[in-house]
Amino acid sequence: MFFELAKTLTDAYSRRFARAVRESYAADEAYASTPLGRAGLAILLLALLAVPLLLPGYPVYVLTLVAIAAIGALGLNLLVGGAGQISLGQAAFLGVGAYAASHLAGPLAPLGILLGGVVAAAIGVVLGLPSLRIKGVYLAIATMAFQFLALWVFNNWEPVTGGIRGRNLPPAEVLGLELDRAERLWYLVLAFAVPLFFYGKRLLATRAGRAWFAVRDNDLSAQVAGVNLTLAKLSAFALSAFYAGIAGGLLANLYRSVTPEYFLFGISVQYLAMVIVGGAGTVLGAVLGAVFVMLIPELLNAVVGAFGPEYAALLAAWRNVVFGGLILLFLILEPLGLVGLWGRIRAYLRTWPLPY
């Protein structure tokens, strides 16, 4: 009797809430395939809209930085985790988008941000040309060379970039409302982030996304199977740069200034760390990686501040060591990243309280 009752309840739960078997491409591309998933998605969107109403100024500012970083990390994730092309120049594309957006600021800020994405995408196509002949560490070195070339341009093309002093931006405006605080700019960031993340998730489930995965796994086999390598690689570089350009434009409007020091080589390494820690090849991995890389230093800062000013200098020197150690420890314990950890937790919750 108890066995039959448990079986009935489990079957009812599985039919209503468990992940459905996907038998078509349309089902595979769906954002949420269960009622519970759709309800969770709606709650998440409402929570994002309520962030400025629930949190004070500085936490909103930090979350805005995280959201912008997640956009840039998603672009790199599509390139590295999707198409398998290594890039160490993501910070350069952030800078291109930021400087382009700085020329259309104020009431034209949304157009400036889009312009930054388009200009970065055009340069991304050019940078993707070497990927047609080289790959692996050689491609990484080529993109790193582009990073240093872009920094030289940012520092020396004064009529466009303002040189070392950079450029200042007026507050962004939308419908006459000045977005002069992070609490207001948050909604502009959401207006760009939400469509970009939905598009990225849908893209990876389409024919183009599967072509990228085939190139990532074995480009010669993909070419034999009919994948256009030129189109796949160049489109991956262009889309990755477009996401980075959008993130750079949003960052410029948040800081209300653009200087070369915002786009150093270390920032590119930081974005690559977001992809690796979060989990390559998934949209969720970009979000989780950005949250980890951006929030852990803030938590360490809070810990350092709790010990008082007399220990601040000593502990601050160890902050980066602890942060790097956490990344290494996490990658050793969970090579698939935060997405792999979340997958194991979700698999456990789906079968709880049953052992199978």
From TrEMBL:
One of its GO terms (cellular component) is plasma membrane. The chain crosses the membrane at residues 36-55, 61-80, 111-129, 136-154, 185-204, 225-251, 271-292, 324-343. It comes from the Bacteria. InterPro entries: ABC_transp_permease, LivM-like. It is a multi-pass membrane protein. It is found in: Cell membrane. Keywords: Cell membrane, Membrane, Transmembrane, Transmembrane helix. One of its GO terms (molecular function) is branched-chain amino acid transmembrane transporter activity. The keyword Transmembrane applies. The keyword DNA-binding does not apply. It holds the Pfam family BPD_transp_2. This is Amino acid/amide ABC transporter membrane protein 2, HAAT family. It comes from Oceanithermus profundus (strain DSM 14977 / NBRC 100410 / VKM B-2274 / 506).
